[in-house]
Task: inverse folding
RNA sequence: GGCCCGAUGGCGGAGUGGUGACGUAACGGACUGCAAAUCCGUGAACCCGGGUUCGAUUCCCGGUCGGGCCUCCA
């Protein structure tokens, strides 16, 4: 099936045409690990995890290589380590672990490759050296800077005219820059700062060169898809594109550039660490929102559209999840059924998740397809078919609410008591039991075959 | 100030030059001792003003409002 994706560089939907269909390469800018991930950080993780599932479905799991880096050297990390008086590794390991756990709770699988900036410094130094040798970068006062005006293609991705960028520069221009638009590839480290030896002295890489070097190292010169948040479009991706193109003699860095939109806070503003109005994934999980609810909420709008993160959105997503859970009920299955073709087709059209959800509604009566589709989408509560023994009966959703045999027995006893009361037409008593259970979050349903219960 | 994007029912949110998806919520009915769940049904929207067109929510221009980027940021 042809996959069409919106490419930021050309501002059009392009059909994915992999350089090598046996090795479809996707790179997404990962986290800088110095704090807990907020739900806005989770949007690209979930979006590109979903795209990766689609790619694997189409090309075969073994023919997709997904790299998501870990930025583990950065001034914020250095500051955080200094504040806690610990080595930077203490900070980066801690928050990388949290990140993987938080994303895992949202059904985001680990990428195939997770290059770390600190272990790719030699590649960065080499790429900087290449850029200097080719006349695209210059050294000045311990720094190495990229010569922006020397690259004619600069500004194409973000559609920014170079002269306006220079004229509109709001930051005080460092005196060693030839042009205000030039950006740092390498900067010197003081004695107490982490640093690596280089032809330009002891220092550390600039942020942008990290991704360029890690992409070349882990995936190759020209990759099929490069993703990230809209805010990375400029300057980060613009700079990546410039560096890689110049270092690789004009070979394009990526054939398709994808950017996800932002999450709003429901008050019009965006969620951002610098504004301090973040809601972390950890918080949301602690509040009792299951991972599949959060994932569904993130997929409820098209990935390029802004999405307001509100309590109402979560409640609507939760209602949908619970409905699916009831629909599927105890579902006997050995293997994960296949996703419905309409669901796959909707995703193949630039990851149109709202259309995908509409397709899902249309197939709700087909439990097999519904389950296969929900599992395919990576919703954490609907994954158990993968690990179930063939033919075993299982109840969906138990993966997120731990089974407790003791509580189950208690509820069963109360249900039995209520059934007896109803048989005796003692409705005051039966309603009392039902209210009591409801207060404990247990919802009773009287069906033709007797009373069943579920957690609300 | 420069650049860019968006505006669809109570809410969320696709899409389209000609009957405006889907979800969620609301309401009515069936079912139920009553509920819940389920089923059936109902009402409910394309920011404003021009233009192009036989016809515009969809295309073009202007405006209003909202958001983003230009500085670390998903």
Result:
């Amino acid at each position: 099936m042809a996959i069409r994706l919106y490419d930021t560089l050309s501002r059009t939907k392009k059909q994915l045409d992999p350089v090598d269909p046996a090795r479809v390469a996707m790179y997404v800018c990962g986290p800088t690990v110095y704090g807990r991930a907020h739900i806005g950080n989770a949007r690209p993780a979930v979006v590109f995890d979903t795209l990766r599932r689609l790619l694997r479905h189409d090309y075969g799991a073994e023919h997709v290589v997904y790299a998501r880096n870990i930025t583990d050297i950065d001034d914020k990390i250095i500051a955080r380590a200094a504040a806690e008086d610990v080595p930077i590794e203490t900070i980066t390991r801690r928050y990388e672990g949290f990140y993987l756990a938080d994303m895992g709770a949202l059904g985001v699988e680990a990428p195939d490759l997770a290059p770390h900036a600190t272990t790719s410094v030699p590649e960065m130094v080499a790429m900087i050296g290449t850029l200097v040798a080719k006349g695209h970068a210059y050294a000045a006062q311990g720094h190495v800077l990229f010569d922006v005006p020397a690259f004619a293609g600069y500004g194409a991705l973000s559609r920014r005219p170079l002269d306006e960028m220079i004229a509109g520069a709001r930051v005080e221009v460092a005196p060693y820059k030839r042009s205000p638009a030039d950006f740092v590839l390498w900067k010197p480290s003081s004695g107490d700062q982490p640093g690596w030896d280089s032809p330009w002295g002891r220092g550390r890489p600039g942020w942008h060169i990290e991704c360029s070097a890690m992409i070349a190292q882990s995936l190759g010169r020209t990759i099929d898809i490069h993703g990230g948040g809209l805010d990375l479009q400029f300057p980060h991706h613009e700079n990546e594109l410039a560096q890689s193109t110049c270092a690789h003699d004009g070979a394009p860095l990526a054939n398709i550039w994808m950017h996800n939109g932002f999450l709003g806070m429901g008050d019009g503003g965006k969620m951002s660490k610098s504004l301090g109005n973040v809601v972390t994934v950890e918080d949301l999980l602690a509040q009792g929102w299951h991972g599949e609810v959060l994932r569904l909420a993130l997929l409820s709008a098209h990935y390029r559209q802004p999405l307001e993160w509100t309590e109402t959105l979560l409640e609507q997503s939760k209602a949908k999840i619970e409905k699916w859970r009831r629909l599927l009920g105890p579902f006997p299955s050995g293997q994960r059924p296949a996703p419905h073709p309409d669901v796959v087709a909707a995703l193949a059209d630039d990851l149109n998740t709202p259309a995908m959800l509409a397709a899902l509604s249309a197939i709700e009566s087909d439990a097999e397809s519904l389950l296969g589709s929900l599992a395919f989408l990576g919703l954490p509560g609907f994954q158990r078919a993968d690990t179930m023994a063939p033919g075993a009966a299982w109840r969906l959703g138990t993966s997120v609410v731990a089974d407790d045999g003791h509580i189950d027995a208690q509820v069963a006893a109360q249900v039995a008591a209520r059934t007896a009361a109803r048989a005796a037409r003692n409705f005051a008593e039966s309603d009392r039991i039902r209210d009591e259970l409801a207060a404990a979050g247990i919802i009773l349903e009287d069906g033709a075959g007797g009373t069943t219960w579920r957690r609300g």
About this structure: Confidence is low (pLDDT under 50) at residues 385-404 of chain A. The CA atoms of residues 189 and 372 of chain A lie 52 Å apart. Residues 288-386 of chain A form a domain with the Four Helix Bundle (Hemerythrin (Met), subunit A) fold (CATH 1.20.120). DSSP finds 15 helices and 14 strands in chain A.
